Amino acid sequence: MKEIPGPRPVDISELVRAQDRLSFIYVERCVVHRSDNAITATDERGTVHIPAATLGALLLGPGSTVSHQAMVLMAESGSTAVWIGERGVRYYAHGRGLAESTRLLEAQAAAVTNQRERLRVARAMYEMRFPDEDISTASMQQLRGREGARVRRLYREHAERTGVTWSKRDYDKADFDSSSEINQALSAATACLYGITHAVIIALGCSPGLGFVHTGHSRSFVFDIADLYKAEIAIPIAFDVVREQPEDIGSATRHAVRDAVKSGHILARCAKDVRQLLIPGDTEGADWNVVHLWDGGNRTVDAGTNYHVDVPW
């Protein structure tokens, strides 16, 4: 048999777990290609090699040209590719998930379609942000009110801490420059956080669209999970960056978010948080290459078995 040309596909067992990967790498005005099992980014300064199997998300900025082979490798490696438009944020694609088990996806679908379970998960998300408060009986309306007050307080506290002028969150996706510097920094930090959490969600085999607090959007669950870390990562970094008055707010914000995500072990925490939200007490992690057949109710049987019996039809 004639051998198929080109590098062999990456075996999923060779890939690095989502929580152990690099958070993200941002590139712009370059050509992204593939060299064996590495992604390459080439511009007038030279070529940089990026190990695809250890990458969480590749953020493609303005002027990026990507080859077919680079995208094949990204998909095989379970890495997320995010295109970010000029002066705006758009999400267009993601690679294959690292998990071949649907345990988390099924748990997510079951919880989001059951009102009691959905409220349990939503409360658990808010509880991560209010660790010293009892919210076990709070309604969604009460939780939203507490969160709104908390975020307003955070904006005010960081404005006072850094001396950055703050009025309100105001931005236009179609016109990045029309917003204030602090709103530009907040938008850049939030975009990075969305890319990172989306990469983890996809890698774990969950659906980015089945949210518990957010709903009706293809990235509702991404917004849910990203909100767990905004107060720790996006908001303080945005105010710190604007205080320093860098020449390029977007670039400085991305670098600061990358460093904070690494030092705060956000990828590992994100993977753990998603598992605990969907399957409390779960310690099994993802199963590899497990396929069953539904046998009615909550029962399953092994696949790959001939179940034929001689019975009259």
Automatic annotation (TrEMBL):
Its EC number is 3.1.-.-. One of its GO terms (biological process) is maintenance of CRISPR repeat elements. Keywords: Antiviral defense, DNA-binding, Endonuclease, Hydrolase, Magnesium, Manganese, Metal-binding, Nuclease. Mn(2+) binds at residues 147, 214, 227. Its cofactor is Mg(2+); Mn(2+). InterPro entries: Cas1, Cas1_I-E, CRISPR-assoc_Cas1, CRISPR-assoc_Cas1_C, CRISPR-assoc_Cas1_ECOLI, CRISPR-assoc_Cas1_N. Pfam families: Cas_Cas1 (PF01867). HAMAP family: Cas1 (MF_01470). CRISPR (clustered regularly interspaced short palindromic repeat), is an adaptive immune system that provides protection against mobile genetic elements (viruses, transposable elements and conjugative plasmids). CRISPR clusters contain spacers, sequences complementary to antecedent mobile elements, and target invading nucleic acids. CRISPR clusters are transcribed and processed into CRISPR RNA (crRNA). Acts as a dsDNA endonuclease. Involved in the integration of spacer DNA into the CRISPR cassette. This is CRISPR-associated endonuclease Cas1. It comes from Nocardioides acrostichi. The lineage of its organism: Bacteria, Bacillati, Actinomycetota, Actinomycetes, Propionibacteriales.
